[in-house]
Design a protein that fits this description.
Strand content: under 5%
Radius of gyration: 33 Å
Mean pLDDT: 84
Number of strands: 0
Number of helices: 1
Helix content: 55-70%
Order of helices and strands: H
Largest sheet: none
Low-confidence stretches: none
Structural class: mainly alpha
């Protein structure tokens, strides 16, 4: 039994295609905004301070006497 693609099929196909494209566009925009927000939150943090290490002074005892 063969079926043909009716005008009703193409109408529904077009509606579903446009709906899928709209959902994709909205989700992409939302995820991009979330990514930008997370990246800007990371940048705003003040850099963590690394403890100051004193300059190395040579306190080794000479083996030669």
């Amino acid at each position: 039994m063969g079926t043909s693609l009716t005008p009703e099929f193409w109408e529904r196909f077009a509606v579903l295609l446009v709906a899928a494209m709209g959902v994709t566009f909205v989700l992409t925009a939302a995820f991009d905004a979330l990514a930008v927000r997370l990246l800007s939150r990371r940048v705003r943090r003040p850099p963590t301070r690394v403890p100051h290490r004193p300059e190395s002074t040579d306190h080794r005892i000479s083996v030669r006497s």
